[in-house]
Task: structure prediction
Amino acid sequence: MAIESRRSFLAAGGSALAGGFGLPHLSAAIQNTVSPYHRPKLKITDVRTAMVAVHGPQAHVRVYTDQGLIGQGESTDAAVGTPALLRSFRPRLLGKDPLNVDAIWEELRRGGIFAGAQGGQYITALSGLEMALWDVAGKALGLPIYQLMGGKFRDRVRIYCDTDMKDNMGAEAERKVAWVEEVGFTAAKIDIDDAGDPARFDAVNRTASNGEIARMIREVRHIREKLPSAIDLAVDMHGFYDAPTGKRVAQEMEGFHLLWLEEPVPPENIDAMAEIRRSSKTPICCGENLFLRWGFRELLEKRAVDIIMPDIQKAGGLSESRKIANLAEAYYIPFAPHCVVSPVGTMASAHVCASVPNFLVCEWHWINHPDLWKNWVREGEIIEKGFISIPDRPGIGVEMNDEAARHAQIPGTPWFAPGEGA
Result:
């Protein structure tokens, strides 16, 4: 070790001298060499946002520092409140060391106890900010985020395609099913809830009629027969129905060997979800509308689901989602994140997925926006044959292409305007 340090010192000093015997250059070379454990000193100088709409509203967050490093993050669904909330966070962020990611997150979460910091828009905004802080930390230390989280269990992260279809039986289904197979996805998802089903007798009541359930079965059978057997199929009910309907549908789905049945009932009644799970062999998945590890505690303790799917861009961020995954691991429950965001948020999610042992599969929801997806980051397409390879570049590992992303900007909203809320 001493020999290597001496060699490094001589090399660095020689390089500086060769640059013109400038004392500042030599001083910098010596400082970098004799201080191998020198921690980067950064301060947050600004936090800015931009709002886009693709699959609903998403907020992009950028954290600026006094050394020119910029971190990027993303929040979704409840993201309409992100700009205003980040403006309120800004006085508590300026001058802070962005490398203290968890400490900043915890200070803001605890400080918001009377402002709704148990979930919803508050935690969604905090999720986008936290992701940007991790990106800064990785760039400052020259490491990918997965490495900062303890390393990776896998080099590639499996992605499933949410087919986002209006018609599971017609030409759209034929085209999309063929495309899923052609590009190499190993899993896909369809939706079977339909508030406009003509067999529905009551627009408010959550009980599905026999006609509605028969229609759901036809659609799942049709898609399952169209897909090769090697491609897994998940089915989403979006929490639209009541417990009797959820139970009936879960039992009817048993013969299709689904990857999972998603949110057969709304997520807030854990006992109802547990009852449906116990009634059927069909795996039940839930979690995209839950927040923080406390939101998943009862779900896991009551064995209410077979698979959890937190949305990393609103459940609390990267570190919090990793804690949720680790909590699920104690119950031998797989982790399959919900993910409807851009390549920025998706790649950030992939770092978390790579860093936990119980990862199953992660969502991709941009099938209706392929060109926008491919151009959103400067690195281009990040999914290859249904997998994302984890980059070794510092931070998240991708950078937004503003020119492309601005095509989705919500009219009348700022685009990373400096000093928001100053």
Notes: Confidence is low (pLDDT under 50) at residues 1-21.
